[in-house]
Amino acid sequence: MKYTEEIFNILSRGGFISINSVSPQIKRYYDAIEDDFNDYYNYYKGIGFYLEGGDGYYLFTRRESKVDIERKLEAAWKWIDYLSFLKTYDTTFSPGVLFRAADIEVQIGCNMELKEKATRLFSDKKKYGEIVEKLISELLKAGMIELENEHDETYKVLTAFHYMEDLVDCITISEEAKDEIPE
Protein backbone atom coordinates (compact mmCIF):
# COMPACT_ATOMS: atom_id res chain seq x y z
CA MET A 1 0.00 0.00 0.00
CA LYS A 2 1.28 3.39 -1.01
CA TYR A 3 0.18 6.85 0.09
CA THR A 4 -1.30 5.82 3.46
CA GLU A 5 -0.02 8.97 5.15
CA GLU A 6 -1.07 11.29 2.33
CA ILE A 7 -4.54 9.77 2.11
CA PHE A 8 -4.92 9.97 5.89
CA ASN A 9 -3.91 13.64 5.90
CA ILE A 10 -6.67 14.49 3.43
CA LEU A 11 -9.47 12.30 4.72
CA SER A 12 -8.89 12.71 8.46
CA ARG A 13 -9.64 16.44 8.14
CA GLY A 14 -13.03 15.73 6.60
CA GLY A 15 -11.80 15.97 3.02
CA PHE A 16 -12.60 13.79 0.04
CA ILE A 17 -10.59 12.04 -2.64
CA SER A 18 -12.49 12.32 -5.93
CA ILE A 19 -12.04 10.49 -9.19
CA ASN A 20 -12.45 13.65 -11.27
CA SER A 21 -9.90 15.72 -9.37
CA VAL A 22 -7.82 18.19 -11.34
CA SER A 23 -4.75 17.11 -9.35
CA PRO A 24 -2.79 14.16 -10.77
CA GLN A 25 -1.67 13.30 -7.22
CA ILE A 26 -5.27 13.04 -5.95
CA LYS A 27 -6.12 10.85 -8.94
CA ARG A 28 -3.21 8.56 -7.97
CA TYR A 29 -4.57 8.33 -4.41
CA TYR A 30 -8.01 7.48 -5.77
CA ASP A 31 -6.60 4.79 -8.04
CA ALA A 32 -4.50 3.35 -5.20
CA ILE A 33 -7.59 3.05 -3.00
CA GLU A 34 -9.56 1.53 -5.87
CA ASP A 35 -6.86 -1.09 -6.44
CA ASP A 36 -6.43 -2.07 -2.77
CA PHE A 37 -9.63 -0.95 -1.06
CA ASN A 38 -9.78 -3.83 1.44
CA ASP A 39 -6.19 -3.30 2.55
CA TYR A 40 -6.73 0.44 3.03
CA TYR A 41 -10.05 -0.20 4.78
CA ASN A 42 -8.48 -2.60 7.27
CA TYR A 43 -5.45 -0.37 7.82
CA TYR A 44 -7.48 2.71 8.71
CA LYS A 45 -10.08 0.69 10.64
CA GLY A 46 -7.26 -0.30 12.98
CA ILE A 47 -6.87 3.33 14.01
CA GLY A 48 -10.59 4.07 14.29
CA PHE A 49 -11.35 5.44 10.82
CA TYR A 50 -13.69 3.74 8.37
CA LEU A 51 -12.85 4.25 4.71
CA GLU A 52 -16.03 4.52 2.67
CA GLY A 53 -16.62 5.00 -1.00
CA GLY A 54 -19.36 7.01 -2.61
CA ASP A 55 -20.22 7.74 -6.20
CA GLY A 56 -16.70 8.56 -7.43
CA TYR A 57 -15.18 9.61 -4.11
CA TYR A 58 -13.77 8.31 -0.82
CA LEU A 59 -14.12 9.67 2.71
CA PHE A 60 -13.58 8.66 6.33
CA THR A 61 -16.35 8.01 8.82
CA ARG A 62 -16.04 7.28 12.52
CA ARG A 63 -18.24 5.78 15.19
CA GLU A 64 -19.72 8.76 16.97
CA SER A 65 -21.01 9.48 20.45
CA LYS A 66 -24.37 11.23 20.82
CA VAL A 67 -22.67 14.61 21.38
CA ASP A 68 -20.69 14.21 18.17
CA ILE A 69 -23.81 13.25 16.24
CA GLU A 70 -25.56 16.43 17.38
CA ARG A 71 -22.54 18.48 16.30
CA LYS A 72 -22.60 16.77 12.91
CA LEU A 73 -26.30 17.50 12.51
CA GLU A 74 -25.60 21.19 13.08
CA ALA A 75 -22.87 21.03 10.44
CA ALA A 76 -25.29 19.30 8.05
CA TRP A 77 -27.59 22.33 8.20
CA LYS A 78 -24.71 24.45 6.96
CA TRP A 79 -24.18 22.15 3.98
CA ILE A 80 -27.91 22.12 3.24
CA ASP A 81 -27.79 25.93 3.04
CA TYR A 82 -24.76 25.77 0.73
CA LEU A 83 -26.48 23.28 -1.56
CA SER A 84 -29.69 25.31 -1.62
CA PHE A 85 -27.73 28.42 -2.58
CA LEU A 86 -25.73 26.64 -5.29
CA LYS A 87 -28.79 24.95 -6.82
CA THR A 88 -30.60 28.31 -6.82
CA TYR A 89 -27.61 29.79 -8.63
CA ASP A 90 -27.60 26.96 -11.18
CA THR A 91 -29.98 23.98 -11.04
CA THR A 92 -27.40 21.90 -12.93
CA PHE A 93 -24.65 22.62 -10.36
CA SER A 94 -23.17 19.14 -9.86
CA PRO A 95 -19.95 17.17 -10.44
CA GLY A 96 -18.15 18.18 -13.60
CA VAL A 97 -19.64 21.69 -13.76
CA LEU A 98 -17.19 24.55 -14.25
CA PHE A 99 -17.94 27.94 -12.69
CA ARG A 100 -16.38 31.26 -11.82
CA ALA A 101 -16.83 33.20 -8.58
CA ALA A 102 -17.45 36.39 -10.58
CA ASP A 103 -20.42 34.75 -12.34
CA ILE A 104 -22.01 33.79 -9.01
CA GLU A 105 -21.50 37.32 -7.72
CA VAL A 106 -23.22 38.79 -10.79
CA GLN A 107 -26.17 36.40 -10.38
CA ILE A 108 -26.62 37.41 -6.74
CA GLY A 109 -27.13 40.98 -7.90
CA CYS A 110 -29.75 39.89 -10.46
CA ASN A 111 -31.70 37.24 -8.57
CA MET A 112 -33.71 38.23 -5.46
CA GLU A 113 -34.00 34.65 -4.13
CA LEU A 114 -30.25 34.13 -4.52
CA LYS A 115 -29.62 37.47 -2.82
CA GLU A 116 -31.71 36.41 0.20
CA LYS A 117 -29.95 33.06 0.46
CA ALA A 118 -26.54 34.72 0.12
CA THR A 119 -27.15 37.08 3.02
CA ARG A 120 -28.10 34.13 5.25
CA LEU A 121 -25.02 32.02 4.40
CA PHE A 122 -22.44 33.99 6.38
CA SER A 123 -23.79 36.60 8.79
CA ASP A 124 -20.35 38.17 9.27
CA LYS A 125 -19.98 38.91 5.52
CA LYS A 126 -21.83 41.88 4.05
CA LYS A 127 -20.52 42.16 0.47
CA TYR A 128 -21.50 39.58 -2.13
CA GLY A 129 -17.88 39.10 -3.16
CA GLU A 130 -16.96 38.22 0.44
CA ILE A 131 -19.84 35.75 0.66
CA VAL A 132 -18.85 34.00 -2.57
CA GLU A 133 -15.19 33.97 -1.52
CA LYS A 134 -16.08 32.37 1.84
CA LEU A 135 -18.36 29.78 0.19
CA ILE A 136 -15.65 28.83 -2.31
CA SER A 137 -13.15 28.60 0.54
CA GLU A 138 -15.46 26.19 2.40
CA LEU A 139 -16.01 24.06 -0.71
CA LEU A 140 -12.27 23.98 -1.46
CA LYS A 141 -11.42 23.02 2.11
CA ALA A 142 -13.95 20.19 2.03
CA GLY A 143 -12.62 18.89 -1.29
CA MET A 144 -15.88 19.46 -3.16
CA ILE A 145 -14.30 21.77 -5.76
CA GLU A 146 -10.84 22.50 -7.14
CA LEU A 147 -9.35 25.42 -9.02
CA GLU A 148 -9.06 24.23 -12.60
CA ASN A 149 -7.75 27.37 -14.27
CA GLU A 150 -5.82 29.99 -12.30
CA HIS A 151 -5.83 32.44 -15.21
CA ASP A 152 -9.60 32.95 -15.36
CA GLU A 153 -10.31 31.55 -11.88
CA THR A 154 -12.48 28.69 -13.08
CA TYR A 155 -13.42 26.04 -10.54
CA LYS A 156 -14.48 22.46 -11.17
CA VAL A 157 -17.10 20.66 -9.08
CA LEU A 158 -15.74 17.27 -7.99
CA THR A 159 -17.58 13.99 -7.55
CA ALA A 160 -17.41 14.49 -3.78
CA PHE A 161 -20.27 16.97 -4.31
CA HIS A 162 -22.51 13.89 -4.60
CA TYR A 163 -21.96 13.46 -0.85
CA MET A 164 -23.73 16.76 -0.17
CA GLU A 165 -26.52 15.94 -2.62
CA ASP A 166 -26.96 12.46 -1.13
CA LEU A 167 -27.04 13.92 2.38
CA VAL A 168 -29.95 16.18 1.46
CA ASP A 169 -31.72 13.39 -0.47
CA CYS A 170 -31.60 11.20 2.65
CA ILE A 171 -33.49 13.74 4.72
CA THR A 172 -37.20 13.06 4.88
CA ILE A 173 -39.69 15.09 6.83
CA SER A 174 -42.82 13.31 7.96
CA GLU A 175 -46.24 14.96 7.53
CA GLU A 176 -46.53 15.49 11.32
CA ALA A 177 -43.16 17.28 11.39
CA LYS A 178 -44.19 19.49 8.44
CA ASP A 179 -47.13 20.74 10.51
CA GLU A 180 -44.73 21.74 13.31
CA ILE A 181 -42.32 23.73 11.14
CA PRO A 182 -43.11 27.45 11.37
CA GLU A 183 -43.39 29.23 8.04
- How much of the sequence lies in strands comes to 5-15%
User: What is the 3D form?
Assistant: globular
String of helices and strands: HEHHEEHEHHHEEHH
Strand order of the largest sheet: 1-3-2
State the end-to-end CA separation. Answer: 53 Å
Short description:
By secondary structure, this protein is α+β, with helices and mostly antiparallel strands.
Give keywords.
alpha+beta, 183 residues, 3-stranded antiparallel sheet
Question: Can you describe this structure?
Answer:
It is built from 9 helices and 6 strands; from the N terminus they run αβααββαβαααββαα. The protein has helices spanning about 5-10, 25-35, 35-45, 65-90, 100-110, 110-120, 130-140, 160-170, 175-180; strands at about 15-20, 50-55, 55-60, 100, 145-150, 155. The strands form 2 sheets. Strands 1-3-2 form a 3-stranded antiparallel β-sheet.
What layout of secondary structure does this protein have?
Elements: H1 4-11, E1 17-18, H2 24-35, H3 37-45, E2 50-53, E3 57-61, H4 66-89, E4 98-100, H5 101-110, H6 112-121, H7 128-142, E5 145-149, E6 154-157, H8 161-170, H9 175-180
Helix pairs in contact: 4-6, 4-8, 5-6, 5-7, 6-7
